[in-house]
Amino acid sequence: MNEKAAVGEKAAVDYVKDGMVVGLGTGSTVYYTILKIGEMVRKGLKITGVATSVQTEKLAKEQGIPLLSLDEVKTIDVAIDGADEINHYFHAIKGGGGALLREKIIAKASKQFVVVADSKKVVQSLGEFPLPVEIVPFGAGKTEGYIQSFGCQTALRMQGDSPYVTDNGNYIIDCQFGEIKDPEQLEKELNNITGVVENGLFVDMVKHVITIGEDKQAILLDKLE
Fold it and tell me: What are the structural domains of the chain?
């Protein structure tokens, strides 16, 4: 069973309706959402997409999905994206694909933020997946040092022999914290570091999670309060 396809397609069918403005996420799971939306558009669905990355913009155009920039729309009805980890409180780590800043901006601008996640991405506590932190290139080594003072192991994300560069022209530091016990506090503290643009903790932003249940069917996950 292709879990990513199952949850990605369900999100498109259940949440994308005629006339909507839809935030299109980035990654290997929401890829199937975009393919399904493209199929729905070719069958007559009329929506407008807002892409979270250059990669997603390219895929959406290939699928015939009309696109506008975020500044060209008044609001986003629903944004659909994947996650590297998400717990039952719907706090998530995102940014493995490098698009965390734009993903968070679009999620924040959306009336509903839906995460699609295969069963391996749903966890009891966040932190096994390294937390991506987007930083400006100037003084990157110094900024990385400030981040290390939080007690994590860090690595500058590379692409070949050079630092990985985001669509915004920034670098990413991948941070191994172990268990993250207070995601809300850590998100705020990291963003207070001079040189940090944004981090991959998505706290109190996700409204719905589609994953795979014990019966191997795509289900809507209930949030713990």
Answer: 3-122+203-221 (3.40.50.1360), 131-199 (3.30.70.260)
